[in-house]
């Protein structure tokens, strides 16, 4: 599955004011519930926060990939966020996070989940990609950067 197929322009946020790890998870859970009738805000938040309790999804270099498998979800969905101000995310390098790709996948899509996480980690491992994402001036410019990065 292509990373771009997980995103849409209404799920790309540039300069989002998150404030904290928990608050950012809440904001994105609320947005996903509003945009997908089969997702409940509390269930999305619970899935994401429970995954964080197993170990931070902060992969380093200011990047996090909060994710979880979600019962009843028919197809994977993603949200990309560039925070206005980096937040502590308990990342493996102890650096604050400002680039986040949220990923929800169907409960039984284990192989797809792992392959998508691997592709995201590879793209985010490149400093040039991260710098381009951080340079975006608007949601639409960020979406264009993501399209070129994940195409």
Please supply descriptive tags for the structure shown above.
single chain; 151 residues; alpha/beta; 5 helices; globular
Question: How are the SSEs placed, and which strands pair?
Answer:
Elements lengths: L11 E5 L4 H15 L5 H14 L3 E3 L2 E2 L2 E4 L6 E11 L9 E10 L3 H15 L2 H9 L3 H12 L1
Parallel strand pairs: 1-5, 3-6, 4-6
Antiparallel strand pairs: 2-3, 5-6
Helix pairs in contact: 1-2, 4-5
Describe, in plain words, how this protein is organized in 3D.
The protein is of the alpha/beta class and 151 residues long. Helix content is 43%, strand content 23%. It has five helices and six strands. Strands 1, 2, 3, 4, 5 and 6 form a six-stranded mixed beta sheet that branches. Helix 1 runs antiparallel to helix 2 (41-54) and helix 4 (127-135) runs antiparallel to helix 5. The protein is globular, with a radius of gyration of 14 Å. The mean pLDDT is 93.
Which range does the strand content fall in? 15-25%
Share of residues in helices: 40-55%
* Overall pLDDT level: 93
How many strand segments? 6
**Main pleated-sheet profile:** 6 strands, mixed
Secondary-structure element pattern, one letter each:
EHHEEEEEHHH
The best one-word shape is globular
Low-pLDDT residue intervals, each spanning 5 or more residues = none
Output the number of helix runs: 5
Distance between the termini: 12 Å
- The structural class is alpha/beta
The whole-angstrom Rg is 14 Å
């Amino acid at each position: 599955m292509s990373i771009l197929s997980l995103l849409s322009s209404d799920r790309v946020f540039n300069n989002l004011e998150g404030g904290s790890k928990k608050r950012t998870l809440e904001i994105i859970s609320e947005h996903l519930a509003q945009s997908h009738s089969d997702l409940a805000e509390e269930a999305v938040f619970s899935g994401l926060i429970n995954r964080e309790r197993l170990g931070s999804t902060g992969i380093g270099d200011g990047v996090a990939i909060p994710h979880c498998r979600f019962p009843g979800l028919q197809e994977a969905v993603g949200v990309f966020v560039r925070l206005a101000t980096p937040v502590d995310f308990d990342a493996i390098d102890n650096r604050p996070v400002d680039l986040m790709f949220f990923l929800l996948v169907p409960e039984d899509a284990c192989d797809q989940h792992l392959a998508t996480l691997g592709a995201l980690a590879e793209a985010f491992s490149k400093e040039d990609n991260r710098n381009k994402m951080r340079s975006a001036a608007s949601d639409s410019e960020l979406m264009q950067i993501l399209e070129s990065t994940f195409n």
